[in-house]
Specification:
With 382 residues, the protein is α+β, with helices and mostly antiparallel strands. It folds into 2 domains: 2-159, Aminopeptidase (3-Layer(aba) Sandwich); 172-334, Gcn5-related N-acetyltransferase (GNAT) (Aminopeptidase). It has 10 helices and 16 strands. It has helices at 21-25, 37-45, 88-96, 124-141, 182-187, 191-206, 221-237, 246-256, 297-313, 346-371, and strands at 2-3, 8-13, 56-57, 59-64, 67-72, 74-77, 104-107, 120-121, 145-149, 164-174, 210-215, 260-267, 270-280, 283-291, 317-319, 333-343. The strands form 2 sheets. The chain has an 11-stranded mixed sheet with strand order 3-6-7-9-16-10-15-14-13-12-11. A 5-stranded antiparallel sheet has the order 1-2-4-5-8. Helix 2 runs antiparallel to helix 8 and helix 7 (221-237) crosses helix 8.
């Protein structure tokens, strides 16, 4: 089927290895590492998308002849594993009415609750053609619905009223522009929170813990093995199955270079914990952590080291991952994140539209309540 004035052809791809990396990456500005060909194709190539976890690649692409013009990274899902936009209530509602919610189609980055571009295109006219092409393609997939999670601001105007809007809260650090170092960051806090952070950092220092920051292009095999061991430890402790493989981590180090950042905590020159982050544009993205359960170490590795790094490197944003009200007291304020949802069943769509309206009102009330507990002094960041 053809779309837009240039007669674009729609194709579904079951593997990104079918696309030249340079052609895929020409569709975005390169500031978000999660939509890069290296990241998405690496998940497929190195065993991170197991079918039993519900991730089956079905990337929507638009072509002008044999030239890639637009794309949405997408997956057929048989469950809601690893999405971070929770729709179990929707699946249950379908089941109660004798309907099948799965499979569904999801436009997202697996395991990554990170806002960024989802409608990738060489220009605005192609971007506008992506969602109509998707809707026309869905019947051939036999899905109940389509979902686009954690899309960026530039994508939002492309969604019509038939795409339900959901919102949620994440806790993020934004430099308002005048913080030059950690002391300047603390100076904007009230005395209680400033004192607490200083005490937490001092507690780590007294244990003789130091940090070594390693970028992907500097990481040794031992560094990557240590970080992967910490990653596995966290999943084992919580009784969850780890999705990422050590081969994928090595792949990120070799392809992203400085876009991969490891914060390795050491005692007596031996690694005891680590935090894995990605960086792109003006933002540091915290993704995984693991290691010894030493007092204050989690906060230092996952938050304070990252803030220090942003201030030194001139990054203005730090997104440390989904959920976690404890982040608020450490300078991460509530920010709204969004997702869009299209349902083939008009009756369900109408019912869930009202549900989404109420949910957004609840999220806004929650955001305002959180801001009343901001660690910053009156007139500070909001």
């Amino acid at each position: 089927m053809a779309y837009a004035a240039t007669m674009l052809e729609c194709r579904l791809l079951s593997s990104l290895d079918a696309v030249d990396p340079g052609h895929w990456d020409a569709l975005h500005d390169g500031t978000n590492p999660f939509v890069s060909h290296a990241f998405l194709a690496g998940l497929e190539r190195y065993g991170c998308l197991r079918e039993e976890w519900g991730w089956r690649p079905q990337h929507l692409t638009l072509w002008e002849g044999e030239t890639l013009a637009g794309a949405v990274p997408g997956y057929l899902k048989e469950n809601s594993h690893g999405e971070f936009v929770f729709d179990h209530a929707w699946a249950n509602a379908y089941a109660r009415h004798g309907r099948e919610y799965y499979p569904k189609w999801l436009g997202a980055v697996p395991y990554s609750p990170v806002t960024g571009p989802r409608l990738l295109a060489r220009d605005a006219s192609v971007r506008a053609a992506l969602l109509p092409a998707l809707i026309d393609t869905l019947p051939s997939l036999g899905v109940s619905s389509a979902h686009v999670n954690f899309h960026g601001v530039a994508d939002e105007p492309c969604f019509g009223e038939d795409w339900l809007l959901r919102e949620d809260i994440q806790f993020q650090w934004h430099n308002p522009g005048h913080w030059q170092d950690f002391a300047g960051f603390l100076a904007d806090m009230d005395s209680k929170h400033r004192k607490n952070i200083r005490q937490e950092r001092a507690k780590v220092a007294r244990q003789g813990i130091s940090f070594r920051i390693v970028h992907g292009d500097q990481a040794t095999r031992a560094d990557l093995q240590a970080m992967y061991r910490f990653y596995l430890q966290t999943f084992v402790e919580y009784g969850n199955a780890p999705a990422l493989t050590e081969a994928f981590l090595r792949h990120l180090a070799s392809t992203l270079g400085r876009g991969l950042v490891l914060f390795l905590a050491e005692m007596d020159a031996q690694p005891v914990a680590g935090a894995l982050c990605l960086r792109g544009g003006d933002t540091l993205y915290g993704r995984y952590w693991g290691g010894a359960a030493l007092p204050g170490l989690h906060f230092e590795a996952c938050y304070y080291q990252g803030i220090d790094y942003c201030l030194r490197e001139g990054l203005t944003r730090f997104e440390p991952g989904a959920q976690g009200e404890h982040k608020l007291a450490r300078g991460f304020l509530p920010r709204v994140v969004r997702s869009r949802h299209w349902l083939a069943d008009a009756d369900f769509a109408d019912a869930l539209r009202e549900w989404c309206d109420h949910e957004r009102q609840d999220v806004e009330r929650y955001r305002r309540e959180l801001l009343h507990h901001s660690p910053f002094r009156a007139g500070g960041p909001a």
